[in-house]
Design a protein that fits this description.
Layout (H helix, E strand, L loop, with lengths): L24 H15 L9 H30 L3 E5 L9 H8 L2 H10 L4 H6 L10 H15 L4 E6 L7 E5 L2 E5 L12 E2 L5 E3 L4 E6 L5 E6 L4 E11 L6 E11 L5 H5 L3 H4 L1 H7 L12 H30 L6 H4 E6 L6 H12 L4 H11 E4 L10 E3 H7 L1 H21 L4 H7 L2 E2 L5 E3 H8 L2 E4 L2 H11 L1 H6 L4 E3 L6 H7 L2 H11 L20 H26 L8 E6 L8 H16 L9 E6 L7 H18 L8 E6 L4 H7 L5 E4 L11 H7 L3 E4 L5 H8 L5 E2 L4 H8 L4 H7 L1 H11 L12 H7 L12 H16 L1 H13 L6 H13 L10
Parallel strand pairs: 1-2, 1-11, 2-10, 11-12, 12-16, 16-17, 18-19, 18-21, 19-20, 21-22, 22-23
Antiparallel strand pairs: 3-4, 5-9, 6-9, 7-8, 9-10, 13-15, 14-15
Helix pairs in contact: 1-2, 1-4, 2-3, 3-20, 6-34, 10-12, 12-13, 12-15, 14-15, 22-33, 23-24, 23-30, 23-32, 29-30
Length: 834
Amino acid sequence: MNPRYACTVKAHPELYDTPELGMDVKSIEHDFKSYYGNHLAQDKGCASGHYLYTSLALTLRDRLFERMKHTKHMYAETKCRQAYYLSMEFLMGRAMGNAALNLGLDESVTIAMNTMGLTFEEMAELEHDAGLGNGGLGRLAACFIDSCATLQLPVTGYGLRYEYGMFQQSISNGNQVEMPDHWLRDGNPWELERPEFTQRVKFGGHTEFHKNANGEMAVYWVDTNDVLAVPYDMPIPGYKNGTVNKLRLWKAAATDEFNLEDFNAGSYTESVACKNEAENISMVLYPNDASENGKELRLRQQYFLASASLQDILDYWVTTHGESFDTFADKNCFQLNDTHPTVAVAELMRLLMDEHGLGWDKAWSIVTKTMAYTNHTLLPEALERWSVNLFSRLLPRVLEIIYEINARFLSEVARRWPGDKERLARLSIIEEGHHQNVRMAHLAIVGSFSVNGVAALHSELLQKGLFNDFYQLWPEKFNNKTNGVTQRRWMAWCNPRLRVLINKTIGEDWITDLSQLSQLAAYADKAPFQKKWIQAKRDNKQRLADLVQKSCGVTFNTDALFDIQVKRIHEYKRQLLNVLHVIHLYDRIKRGDTDGLVKRCVLFGGKAAPGYAMAKDIIKLINNVASVVNNDPDIGDWLKVVFLPNYQVSAMEVICPAADLSEQISTAGKEASGTGNMKFMMNGAITIGTLDGANIEIREEVGDDNFFLFGLTEDEVDEQRLSYNPRAVIAQDPDLKRVVSLLEGGHFNQFEPNRFDNIINGFTSHNDPWMTIADFRSYVDAQHNAGLAYQDKSRWTKMSILNSAHSGKFSTDRTMEEYNNEIWKLDKISPRLS
């Protein structure tokens, strides 16, 4: 603990005997006015939206912190086993609406604001999206900790407090333009700085061996360049149950922010160099790692998160249990969210041995009983690998420990498979070659007692393919935990029209038990209920149409089929296949071939990584195609296409309630799970998709008749890859041939010659790993069937209702129950305050 904040005076008990905060309308109104007029010193002459929003945020935050304190005390009193969720991303979105909902205050807040001539909805819209994540990985982490609080599981999240999010995206001449996302520019009223728990994280230096006070040889990591990790806590409320867990985010700070000697000598830049270098660690989410400097910063971020978090947990243990770690593994569990934080395996070894004096065997026993690893990818290139040279310069002591872990592990492998040098090379944590690398996923598997995938197919493919050697060695470690999403944000909050309808029909229990939605199946073909369902969907579509008009200047007809694909832009997610279908529809309409077509509004959204040229080219193609389609009078209302800029959580809260058709069209065997598919399903969208990721389980739940399936299976992709000839496929399909001809003829880039040659060369190559052309005909046919189904309103509405009714499996409440029952084994703890 920072000595500045050490307890020096014993506080009087009365100090802690604070009255409970009121949850009624008058209490909310009183506290809001107090914050606005006194704390923020506003008066009649100022009605700034920022100060109004901040006043309400602080009013709600008080009630969250009140419950967070009670929750913490109950965990301490019961001495319960706890879990810690380490993730580089927590894509939280806006906090205000979720806080009010989970506190049970949404109605009271609405009334309180109305009495003062304000609206709660407008206040919530003033909040910036928290820039703490990028895509599905971060949003999943946010859903997980929401469900843990609702299930009353003692789980703490650990992440980084990024000053800037990934980036704000705008579109200029069809191209993605990246701008800084300074989401903290107006402060963050939902967080609380906790400087008393600041940690010191080491980088650089070297190791020395000396005898310790007991006369034993010990390792000392010396001459290091240290960085301070300052914690900020954000409350994570459960749904109306009094539990508020904690998300602790680390900000990097210099040990010596200002060098007065350099400043007085006129070296102004050098005087703050240490401060700037330290703060870079938590400055930006996912710095571009195309350069060596970028790679070093990424590794610094990952180690900073792991070391600060583990030190924090160990400090609390020593404070409450002393230096005995005999029961540490019985009381603690660490869940590593993907490969980014897996250096925690070696860092926990370092802390236990070097800082707390444990021997190797005892430390390793603790590590391998407390670490659990979740893998989120089937793409080998997406697994973290760090050069040994970089590791040795930045984290020399940690690398020594990794070498020792690897040596002991390879001895075990050699005993199991004597003389199998190829297997030893495949399994080794250190990848040999011209440049040695540390394979972080291998470190995670070796050091963890549980390794899980995030969908049934994904977990199966990990065991059969990517990690097969490890699976043969330790089959008992591997398991599946199919992802989910929280229905509280992704239905109850973001779709109030549907929430009201469902509550009136089956009650409110579904908000904490999504399986209750199965009761809706009995109403799926009842005309009165269908009419109300259609109206709720139409209202939501109008809300999205307003957003599209405001952001893109394009008018969406709410009677049209809303065809949505929003997700990170990546070749394997195949936004390109969707664009090819749009061009196919454009070609048909232009030729007057509209038989069986339905009016359709196609919406794309998502960000491409700044260094991912092909993904950015695909964004450009989408926008060029959209420009041609939307400005052609022959097309009219038959087809509208937009790329919605700066896709983020708050945008998805408008998009998913309005979607009719959910595009989940990745190449089979490439998507780990997907969670957007689940959000759309819950809100009544019908999926068009391949047998990939969680699509398989969605189709199993909802049935073949309520899912538009297309494309090659994972096995068929592998079979066809060797003889794949996309040019031959194009030649045999007249529709596809016309689409490719429009692209090759420059129809969508008439003033930008050769602009899309890279895209064309990619999907026409026999080496195209995404097999886009192979699935075109099947995709077009499935899209045609979707259009026909949409024209039968009763049939489509029934399909929509059944998708919601059968979405119960895809709640993170179910996912977290499985994590807890099979991995964490925590007791549920109920605080006294509700």
